[in-house]
Amino acid sequence: MTKEIYLCVASTNPVKVSAAKNAFLAVFPDLVIQCEGMEALSGVANQPMTESETRLGAENRVRYCSNLDSENRFDYFVSMEGGVDKFEEGAATFAYVSILTKNMSLTTGRSANLPLPSKVFKRLENNEELGHVMDDIFNTSNIRQKGGAIGLLTNNVATRESIYTQALVLALAPILHAEHYL
Q1: Roughly how many angstroms between the first and final C-alpha of the chain, as a whole number?
Q2: 9 labelled as ligand-binding?
Q3: What is the pLDDT of residue 93?
Q4: pLDDT, tens only, 115-154
Q5: How does pLDDT run across 6-39, given as a tens digit for each residue?
Q6: Domain extents for the chain?
Q7: Does residue 122 have a known ligand-binding role?
Q8: Binding residue per annotation — 13?
Q9: Cβ neighbours of residue 58 under 8 Å, at least 6 residues apart?
């Protein structure tokens, strides 16, 4: 009998659901990954503007989903929260990812920074969301559910999904080797 892992992704965005499934498939290649998206409240602004707000949003989303799992269906709860901040090198976008296990062990990780043009960051400071700004500048539609700003600014060498997948794989290290993270 093949072992299955049941994932709850704290979003119904197909990019995020696919990234979570791909990360777990890469780390657990001999298991069947069952993946379900769920709308989840972040408790932060729609466009987080700091690292700490972005991290809190990711952690809040997995806890939200866990609290709704009254039937204990899921082995893991996974979230990805994109945010922006201004660093010494300039404005950048990035994501925090959180993984909450069935036994309530929380692991949080972070993606690399993608530098943002200053004109984009200025619009974000005026309460616009990154996806909408990028759609406007690049004349795209709903880029959030496609390659994202990352895809647009890297000519699709990297995408929103690929960055989320990588960050999740790295965040799984303490779960894979818990004995070394005591």
Answers
A1: 32
A2: no
A3: 97
A4: 999 999 999 999 999 999 999 999 999 888 888 999 999 9
A5: 999 999 999 999 999 999 999 999 999 999 999 9
A6: 4-111+159-180
A7: no
A8: yes
A9: 42, 79, 80, 81, 95, 96, 97, 98, 108
**pTM of the model as a whole:** 0.94
How far is it, in rounded angstroms, from Cα 112 to Cα 130? Answer: 17
174 annotated as belonging to a binding site for a ligand:
no
At 182, list the tokens: 């005591």
- Tell me if 11 is assigned to a ligand binding site: yes
- CATH class of the domain whose range is 4-111+159-180: alpha beta
Q: What angle do CA 36, 159, 19 make, to 5 degrees?
A: 20
> 98 forms bridges with which residues in the sheet?
79, 108
Contacts (Cβ under 8 Å, ≥6 apart) of 37: 8, 9, 11, 12, 13, 14, 16, 17
Q: What pLDDT does residue 20 have?
A: 98
Is 142 annotated as contributing to ligand binding?
no
